[in-house]
What we know:
Elements: H1 2-22, H2 28-47, H3 55-80, H4 88-106, H5 113-145, H6 149-168, E1 173-174, H7 178-185, E2 187-188, E3 191-192, H8 193-211, H9 213-223, H10 225-230, H11 235-261, E4 263-264, H12 272-282, H13 294-313, H14 318-359
Antiparallel strand pairs: 1-4, 2-3
Amino acid sequence: MFAKSKSLPMKQKTDNKLPSLTRFKMHPTNLGLSLLLILVIIGFSIAMPGRFFSDATFMSVAFQLPELGLLTLAMFIPILSGGLNLCIIATANLTSLLMAWVFMTYLPADASMTMQAVWLTIALVGAMVLALVIGVLTGALVAYIGAHPILVTLATMTMVNGIGIYLSRGAALSGMPDIVRFIGAETVWGIPVPLIVFLATAVIISVFLERTRLGKYIYMSGSNINATHFSGVNTHRVLIAIYVLSSMLCVIAGLIMMARFNSARMGYGDSYLLLTVLAIILGGTDPFGGFGKVSGVVLSLIVLQVIATGLNLLNVSPHFSLAMWGAVLIVVLAVKFFRTRYLQRRASRRSAAKARASLL
Length: 360
């Protein structure tokens, strides 16, 4: 009896140490993406000695990544809930057109930086109100009508594109104020401002999804929306909140695109739609919802942007690159499908073996 009573605390102490040893292990997806990134950098460095591994390449990646990254985060939240938002690029362009119109109509040409900051805030508020309307409309159609998110967002994308092209006559609004150009082209402590905006947004979204009640509801909705509803969660409000958040992220993406191009126009970034889905799936997110991490998405974005920069330096045709991204997405989906099937079969074999062992 005495020996047993002394062995119990020792066992408990050992068990308590186990979480601390495993808490900081990197997720397998993140580990795989990190190794892939290292291999890609080594490969391009060998193919282009002295050209690829340089400050110029880093700055190119750092300036080009944020606009795609912000659009990917806007797509990530609906996919995490088991949905999709095809309207992200149209929303980003329409809100950037609104901000550009505010600058060109009301901001004096000789305005100080303080006055420009005030009008930038006003333009952002107006763009967020517009994004709120688009998000509520999209979410309400998905939640209350029950239409599939692909059909709903395809309809809202077509509508938003049509409104933007009609109001702008398909032209670009150019000539942004200095404060907008600063956001798109300047650095702080050697780090591009767009990259700072993207990383700060990614951290906020990660904390929101993992630490807030609504974030947990988004994961639950992606796992099983019916079970979430019967557990007492108002899934209609959750769905509306999902598409509102997605549209709000599009406002930030629209600001970064407008700042980088020094203009706003419907049609900017149309090729990003495929890349956002590819980055999310490559980052380990379940395409049916319920599982995914912002860290994996960010890592996959870095890998894709480094590959795109390397192919650009090798003078590979952008049309071939686009076809390659589509092929990569097909391969990733196929690998996920066969891996899931393999794990299911292995689990069934193990359960059958346990059942046979219990009978013996």
